[in-house]
Amino acid sequence: MAAEKSWVRLVTAQTPTNIAVIKYWGKRDETLILPINDSLSVTLDPNHLCTTTTVAVSPAFHQDRMWLNGKEISLAGDRFQNCLREIRKRANDVEEEEKGIKIAKKDWENLHVHIASYNNFPTAAGLASSAAGLACLVFSLAKLMNLKEDQAQLSAIARQGSGSACRSLHGGFVKWIMGNNDDGSDSFAVQVTDEKHWDDLVILIAVVSSRQKETSSTSGMRESVETSLLLKHRAQEIVPKRMIQMEEAIKNKDFPSFARLACADSNQFHATCLDTTPPIFYMNDTSHKIISIVEKWNRAETTPQVAYTFDAGPNAVLIARDRKTASLLLRRMLFHFPPGADVDLNSYVLGDKSILQDAGIKDMEDVKSLPSPPEIKDVNSNQKYAGDVSYFICTRPGQGPIVLSDESQALLNPETGLPK
Ligand code: ADE
Fold it and tell me: Which reactions are catalysed by this chain (predicted)?
């Protein structure tokens, strides 16, 4: 009897990363990843920061395997296993007649998957790669296995891989509702407004050079929950009110309120880290200098121009009210943080490079001749710190996950199911 012809079914998807403006810090359930407060984020444009993942299934595969940025990694960790289990449970019949593929719902438990994932930004730069990565894993597997669940229900699965991943299942502004149920069924992410609602905003990320190894978010959160009274107060008294105000600010495109709330929330999150025993330091001197520069500028204007927010690391995420403001922000950033001696401008400002033109900067000569910002009156605030920022990424609010239907974008070979 001739061997049955084998087949490979592929799905490729692209998923954005996100940055919280009302922070998630602290779990009430470590296994299900249930938070102690709601959080709210902006999804970043996947053209600049995203994960692309191809998932494949074939009767010829003998085990589940995964490659991250070209290197095989273990799928043994809970974060992957929880997502795989929850998706397999909900898999449905799949039929692709032209390829001779017919998978019955009950077949999925015996079929293995191959997963190849690629982050278009440095995985170790502290730019929420696990959020985009786990969201992309869940979204692409859900398409492969023909799940009927909506984005909110998929977000509850992604949450079990990495908490903040649930917010990457939507574009625009997204809130993660903490929920109250012990089984986590009411803890998922929903869209507040889509990415077109407030498309004036420009986001400039300063990837800050850091020598020290940071406390992981998982252990940092655990220590804060166990020891910080400020975190308890924040979760119970502050965040519920702030969530309402932040949603209102976003819906009304009220930048002054948005900036005030985002900056206050970032600062309070870092205050809870300091209130942890032993204290945790995520920001460094460069982060603090960036805060001072923005605060000074905002106070010199009649209304705030830029909001800042910092996650569990030293990188600054700066949100400018519009393009004009973003170009003025870039001029200030390049004045204080010019590239190091061996770095050229083209590899120093990434993402939407048109911001350089808007800022009137074409080369290093232009950077060197930038004037001191007008709000700076004393010479001590006028200093330059070449090399303290590794690079900038200019981006904006962006869309949620999409399927890439062009097979040339797949990361796995459609014949073998192995990395291309
Ligand atoms: N962690 C960091 N990046 C990831 C990715 N693309 N997929 C899964 N986990 C990740």
Answer: (R)-5-diphosphomevalonate + ATP = isopentenyl diphosphate + ADP + phosphate + CO2
Predicted-complex ipTM score? 0.92
Same domain? For 191 and 207 the reply is no
Ligand 1 centroid – CA 247 distance (Å): 29
3-state SS of 191-245 is: EEECCCCCCCCEEEEEEECCCCCCCCHHHHHHHHHHHCHHHHHHHHHHHHHHHHH
Backbone angles phi, psi at 306, to 5 degrees: -140, 140
Which residues form the domain of 381?
202-395
Q: Answer yes or no: is the C-beta of 129 below 6 A from any ligand 1 atom.
A: yes
CATH code at 382? 3.30.70.890
Task: Report how many domains make up the chain.
Answer: 2
Among 64, 119, 218, 411, the mutation site with the greatest number of ligand 1 atoms within 8 A of its Cβ is 119
Assess whether the C-beta atom of 51 lies below 6 angstroms from ligand 1. yes
Reduced 3-state DSSP string for 315-361: CEEEEECCHHHHHHHHHHHHHHCCCCCCCCHHHCEEECCHHHHHCCC
Atom 7 of ligand 1, nearest CA residue:
133
Q: How far is the CA of 131 from the centre of ligand 1 (A)?
A: 8
Instruction: Indicate if ligand 1 lies below 6 Å from the C-beta of 73.
Output: no
- From first CA to last CA, the distance across the chain in angstroms is 32
Could you tell me which residues come within 8 angstroms of residue 212 by beta carbon, excluding any fewer than 6 positions away?
A: 284
Interval 304-347: pLDDT, tens: 999 999 999 999 999 999 999 999 999 999 999 999 999 999 99
By C-alpha distance, which of 290, 134, 139 is closest to 208? 290
- Give 332 Cα–ligand 1 centroid separation in angstroms: 33
Cβ–ligand 1 distance for 133 under 6 Å, the answer yes
